[in-house]
Design goal:
mainly beta, 7-stranded mixed sheet
Length: 111
């Protein structure tokens, strides 16, 4: 059974950084596209960044130059490095792939 587990969320001040992790289990970690989405209160879930197993990446315009998605196929993991965080980055962050979603991790950017 495929499982995705996110970690690394928390409370950070504007301008700060966080690194989110998504660990996959129950699947052979190859030939995938993994996406990070976020959902702010009262808003629709939106794509933040995505990466293929080969390392090709895609970012939402709102996070380009601030967020970096990466993968470690040996560890069945994908990461989202978030720098220069803004209050509007606040939300629950989810990873998704293989037809599954993780449970989400809360990111709060506030002074």
């Amino acid at each position: 059974q495929v499982q995705l587990v996110e970690s690394g969320g928390g409370l950070v001040q504007p301008g700060g950084s966080l690194r989110l992790s998504c660990a996959a289990s129950g699947i052979i970690f190859r030939n995938y596209v993994m996406g990070w989405y976020r959902q702010a209160p009262g808003k629709q879930r939106e794509l933040v960044a995505a990466i293929t197993s080969g390392g090709s990446t895609n970012y939402a315009d709102s996070v380009k130059g601030r967020f970096t998605i990466s993968n470690d196929n040996a560890k069945n993991s994908v990461y989202l490095q978030m720098d220069s965080l803004k209050p509007e980055d606040t939300g629950v962050y989810y990873c998704t792939s293989f037809g599954k979603w993780g449970q989400g991790t809360q990111v709060t950017v506030s002074s």
